[in-house]
Design goal:
Layout: H1 2-21, E1 34-40, H2 47-54, E2 60-61, H3 74-77, H4 91-100, E3 109-113, H5 122-128, E4 134-140, H6 143-153, H7 156-163, H8 174-195, E5 201-204, H9 205-210, H10 212-222, H11 249-253, H12 258-268, H13 272-277
Parallel strand pairs: 1-3, 1-4, 2-3, 4-5
Helix pairs in contact: 6-8, 8-12
């Protein structure tokens, strides 16, 4: 938390300078050479693979190394608060800061952003950028594989700190932890399902890794300038070595014990309609 506060202080200083620059620099308000591709997805659901694959084009980039512009604004990245739909965000400042990170070049570029917690505010983000071309894609993933990945990377203390402070004191057992993760998946997936109604293209992690060339074809239909993406390119995701896209669901789900699978199902059960609408089924 102290690290985040230090980063937030530096970002606020940077943002103050950008706000002042914008008074006389119109390129911080809108750019004719910039388009946006926003990726709506849950954490650990394939968005890094999508972002890295898309950034293989010479005409694409991201405003941060992670592909998540949320980290440039404290209001959008605050631990325990960034997933709050009612969180107050200065979207004009977001646009200014993001544009300040896009270098000026000889050719137009498409900026890829995959900030997971922007799922709760993606309509507002898209509106703030709407003086420029904006496209939205959504990506789903099997809830059990997603939860298995969460459990590996986010222990209970981190889930409480970063995602759900309201769960403090409630995740003391394995069953409680995995049930909570299943419930969180269901709540966020409901937001994703609603966003799919306005998405320019929707797919799943499973479809993407099975046929990356089809995914690239769909994306170049939205932005033809990205036609040099190589669907067979090696992609580095999280702590895995760079490799072509492949389905990692089975090996991640295999890390869950039968009891953990059952707890995830219990957490997902109130959201069964959402699970089915996104193309998945409850297990066990």
């Amino acid at each position: 938390m102290l690290k985040w506060h230090a980063q937030a202080a530096l970002l606020n200083i940077y943002g103050t300078g950008i706000r002042a620059r914008a008074l006389f620099d119109p390129s911080l308000r809108s750019r004719e050479d910039v388009s946006w591709l926003l990726v709506a997805t849950l954490p650990n659901s394939g968005s890094t693979a999508v972002s890295k694959l898309l950034q293989g084009s010479s005409r694409s980039l991201a405003v941060t190394p992670s592909g998540e512009g949320q980290w440039l604004l404290p209001a959008m990245s605050a631990p325990g608060k960034r997933w709050e739909p009612s969180r107050s965000v200065d979207y004009e400042q977001m646009r200014r800061v993001w544009l300040s990170r896009v270098p000026k070049g000889d050719a137009p570029v498409v900026v890829i952003d995959k900030s997971p917690s922007n799922l709760v505010r993606l309509a507002e983000v898209a509106h703030a950028l709407s003086s420029m071309p904006v496209k939205l894609i959504s990506v789903t993933r099997d809830p059990y594989a997603t939860v298995a990945s969460w459990a590996k990377r986010y222990p209970p203390a981190r889930v409480i700190r970063d995602w759900r402070p309201s769960l403090k004191g409630q995740l003391g057992t394995d069953d409680a932890f995995f049930e909570a993760l299943g419930n969180i998946w269901g709540e966020w997936a409901a937001m994703l399902l609603k966003l799919r109604e306005r998405a320019d293209y929707s797919t799943s992690y499973e479809t993407l890794v099975a046929a990356p060339a089809d995914f690239v074809t769909a994306i170049t239909g939205l932005y033809p300038e990205l036609s040099d993406i190589d669907p067979s390119a090696n992609v580095s995701v999280k702590d895995y070595e760079a490799q072509p896209l492949r389905n990692m669901n089975d090996e991640q789900i295999a890390s869950l014990t039968p009891a953990q699978l059952g707890a995830v199902t219990k957490g997902l059960a109130p959201h069964e309609g959402i699970v089915r609408a996104l193309g998945y089924e409850l297990r066990g």
